[in-house]
Amino acid sequence: MNNLQNFKDYLLKQQIDFEESVSLKKKTWIKRGGVTNFWVLPNTENKLSSICIYCYKHQIHFEIVGHTSNLYFYNDYHPFIVITTVHLTNYIVHDTEIECEPGTPVAKLANQCIKQGFIGYEGFIGLPGTIASAVYNNSSCFGSYMSDIFIKATFLQEDSHIKDIFLNDLKYTQRSSALKRKELRGVILKVFLKRNQTEHPQQLIDKAIENKKIRNKTQEGPLNNLGSICGTISGYRKSTKNLIVRSLLKIYTIINHPSDYQKHKFTKKLILTIYRRKKLSKYISDYNMNCFIWKDDNADIHFNSYIALMKKVYHMEDDNLEIELKVNQNKVSK
């Protein structure tokens, strides 16, 4: 109780906006999660850093989120504090770089950068999420890579010291980073990105338009899903069932000459039939097996079964998920 009141008093004293006893189902992208005691909404970098420093000093665990478009909060997880960057969305275009607050929407920034002829943003058009989360995840899409445009970030460490971190510090791998792997711990306060000008801005605009068309045509819409679930997939695992899947898929393709969408839909039906997992059908995208849809309340029950199926069917470079799970740690440790 003292922690609750002390933290509340601190927020009031610092004039930081917050809400109490908030259901995360009303805040998160896929409408999941338990109840947080405090949903905190800092609107300046100083307020963000001061909250985090307070929590570090008093050893209070907190979650920090942007759009939550890459986070799955389990319904039995009730974090004490969730800090959101939804009020930290400003950016400034300087002569040689772009300075972004952590909650800057990737899609909004990409759209403006493309219009101004800045190279490297055309693949991020329509991508949900914030700049800080894109740095954290090493986001990439349609040939655009965060690692290609990242310069540095202002970073608050767990010991409350603030420093600049650079590309080498993040140790980027395919859609992962030292931050995501917990090798580097702290909070991103600000991000600086490249602004390399092209001599052919219309080509960037045309490329971005084409990327958006492809996204709309080949990917599930943003509703009720977190995009790609599993890490890098590099083909089917060797098994009798997968041999049957591949053989039947090859025959289907030769006979029917299907579109990409038809082929993906048939692949899903084939896999679920052979593996006897037809109950998962409505929770898996017709566009991509690597996209789970939280269509109803029962989706949470089927999620682990879906992950187990994906690991049986596909060979992955590692067993890590591309999304981040927020779970009740006490329950996990039992």
UniProtKB/TrEMBL annotation:
Cofactor requirement: FAD
Positions of the FAD-binding PCMH-type domain: 32-198
Gene Ontology MF terms in the entry: FAD binding; UDP-N-acetylmuramate dehydrogenase activity
One BP annotation, GO: cell wall organization
Residues at the active site: 175, 228
Record field: catalytic activity: UDP-N-acetyl-alpha-D-muramate + NADP(+) = UDP-N-acetyl-3-O-(1-carboxyvinyl)-alpha-D-glucosamine + NADPH + H(+)
Key word Cytoplasm present: yes
A Pfam family that the UniProt record links to this protein: FAD_binding_4
Location of this chain's protein in the cell: Cytoplasm
Keywords on record: Cell cycle, Cell division, Cell shape, Cell wall biogenesis/degradation, Cytoplasm, FAD, Flavoprotein, NADP, Oxidoreductase, Peptidoglycan synthesis
Main location group: cytoplasm
Pathway membership, UniProt: Cell wall biogenesis; peptidoglycan biosynthesis
Enzyme Commission no: 1.3.1.98
Cellular component aspect of the GO annotation: cytosol
Similarity section: Belongs to the MurB family.
Function: Cell wall formation.
PANTHER family listed in its UniProt record: UDP-N-ACETYLENOLPYRUVOYLGLUCOSAMINE REDUCTASE (PTHR21071:SF4)
Record-given protein name: UDP-N-acetylenolpyruvoylglucosamine reductase
